[in-house]
């Protein structure tokens, strides 16, 4: 654990944007999550919402159980809102947290030289999530399941052995008031220390509920057990922007999506196209517009396909 400059109560903490970064790292290592007040200005979250409202209003229903039917989603936020990208994805605190938890360093012999390589994180998904009245809670999950992360049970975080523990870091920014009643993200504090081999499922009664004002943020490590909450209101919509970043190194050395034009990819058979990268890594890595990327090559097959994986 890093040195703490301040004593904190045992509950998940609310901090402000001028809080020392080392303390934010400490709290994330202790609890797996931290709330940050006034992370983004009201003006900027309103602008980001305005940029995606039409898409949210027209969002197709989710096909599956990961999101309830009453949750409207706007994927690819970077393509939809420059304000979102500038003020959330590139927020200096989120960038510093990702840099701290997701930079991978290794040493290798390079002939007779010892060479250090430093791989930096990058964005993995950005989605607006508007939970509507009547939505049931999401199943509790760890976001790092998409990275097939395998974790040992810990009693507390230790920097050296835990330095590769996290695969990703999430940022949820409130674009409306977020309450327990309207589906605030619920999570189990300190569950990021759990091992992958636990035999019993997480218990929703152990969750705390995010209570946020517009512009506030929840930062969480991807191993934290969490999910969108139930919206038990009649007419209150909960909107949050969800940004995730991941370690930079397990990707194609030669970027096939940019190196091989789609017209060339289309000349190959489906097996080859998949192997080039036009497939979903189970459960959900690689989607385009919430669908298998193969449909970017065959849009005519999209007719009865609904988003979901
Ligand atoms: O909507 C939320 O509060 C959580 C969303 C979430 O957990 C996810 O998309 O993985
Ligand atoms: Fe999640």
UniProtKB/TrEMBL annotation:
Q: Tell me which domain of life the UniProt entry assigns to the organism this sequence originates from.
A: Eukaryota
Molecular function terms in GO for this entry? Answer: dioxygenase activity; metal ion binding
What Gene3D superfamilies does this protein's entry cite?
A: q2cbj1_9rhob like domain (2.60.120.620)
Query: Which InterPro entries does the record cross-reference, listed alphabetically?
Result: Phytyl_CoA_dOase-like
Q: Which cofactor does it need?
A: Fe cation
- Signal sequence coordinates: none
Per UniProt, the keywords (alphabetical) are:
Dioxygenase, Iron, Metal-binding, Oxidoreductase
Q: Which PANTHER family does this chain map to?
A: PHYTANOYL-COA DIOXYGENASE DOMAIN CONTAINING 1, PHYTANOYL-COA DIOXYGENASE FAMILY PROTEIN
Quaternary structure annotation from Swiss-Prot or TrEMBL: Homodimer.
Q: Which family does it belong to?
A: Belongs to the PhyH family.
This protein's name: Phytanoyl-CoA dioxygenase family protein
Name the species this protein comes from. Answer: Endocarpon pusillum
Question: What lineage is this protein's organism placed in?
Answer: Eukaryota, Fungi, Dikarya, Ascomycota, Pezizomycotina
């Amino acid at each position: 654990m890093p040195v703490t400059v301040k004593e904190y109560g045992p509950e998940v903490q609310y901090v402000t944007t001028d809080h020392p970064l080392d303390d934010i790292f400490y709290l994330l290592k202790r609890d797996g999550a931290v709330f940050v007040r006034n992370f983004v200005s009201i003006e900027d979250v309103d602008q980001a919402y305005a940029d995606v409202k039409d898409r949210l209003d027209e969002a197709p229903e989710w096909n599956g159980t990961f999101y309830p039917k009453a949750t409207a989603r706007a994927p690819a936020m970077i393509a939809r809102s420059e304000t979102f990208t500038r003020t959330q994805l590139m927020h200096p605190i989120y960038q510093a947290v990702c840099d701290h938890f997701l930079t991978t360093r290794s040493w290798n012999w390079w002939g007779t030289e010892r060479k250090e390589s430093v791989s930096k994180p990058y964005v993995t998904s950005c989605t607006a999530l508007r939970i509507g009245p009547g939505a049931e809670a999401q199943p509790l999950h760890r976001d790092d399941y998409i990275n097939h992360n395998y974790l040992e049970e810990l009693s507390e975080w230790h920097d050296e052995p835990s330095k590769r523990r996290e695969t990703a870091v999430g940022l949820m920014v409130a674009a409306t008031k977020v309450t327990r009643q309207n589906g605030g993200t619920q999570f189990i504090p300190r569950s990021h220390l759990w091992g992958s081999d636990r035999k019993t499922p997480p218990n929703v009664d152990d969750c705390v509920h995010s209570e946020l004002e517009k512009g506030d943020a929840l930062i969480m490590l991807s191993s934290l057990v969490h999910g969108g909450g139930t919206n038990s209101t009649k007419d209150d919509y909960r909107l949050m922007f969800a940004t995730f970043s991941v370690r930079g190194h397990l990707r194609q050395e030669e970027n096939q999506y940019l190196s091989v034009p789609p017209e060339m990819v289309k000349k190959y058979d489906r097996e080859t196209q998949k192997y080039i990268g036009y497939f979903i890594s189970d459960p959900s890595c690689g989607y385009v517009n919430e669908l298998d990327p193969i449909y970017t090559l065959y849009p005519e097959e999209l007719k009865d396909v609904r988003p979901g994986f």
